[in-house]
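SEQUENCE-TO-STRUCTURE ENTRY
===========================
Question of interest: how does this chain fold, as expressed in backbone structure tokens?
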Amino acid sequence: MSELKDRLRADLTASMKHRDEVRTRTLRMVLTEISKEEVSGSAAHELDDAQIERVLAREAKRRREAAEAFTSAGRADQATAELAEGDVLAEYLPAQLDDAELTGLVAEAIAAAGAAGPGAMGQIMKAVTPEVAGRAEGSRVAAEVRRQLAAG
């Protein structure tokens, strides 16, 4: 079994003992999503840590999007609850790249490939994506690649 899944289960038990409702609700939800992922497809399989991180990242993104929707609808209470769940999920994800680190990685990939112009977008994304996996959202990476290719 993966270490991350064990950690999630142990933290769920601890949060239940401490009566931390937000953490308990969030961890139950993510463990359910992991279980769904494990039984989907033609055969049941155990997820490894990288696959579990992808599930966590997907759920964190859903929380951010829901919070934005609730905020724009004037439901600050619901938005706050979604953000709180997102914060719990973020504790289990790798640290996100800041803008300077992302800019540097994209610049290195462009220089290494000798790419120029918007036509090289796919080539650069293919080179950068494995380096930033789990540490930056794809849309953020794509925006930076697009910006640098347009400027260069």
In short: The domain at 3-90 is CATH 1.10.1510.10 (Hypothetical Protein Yqey; Chain: A; domain1). The mean pLDDT is 89. The radius of gyration is 18 Å. The first helix runs from residue 3 to 17.
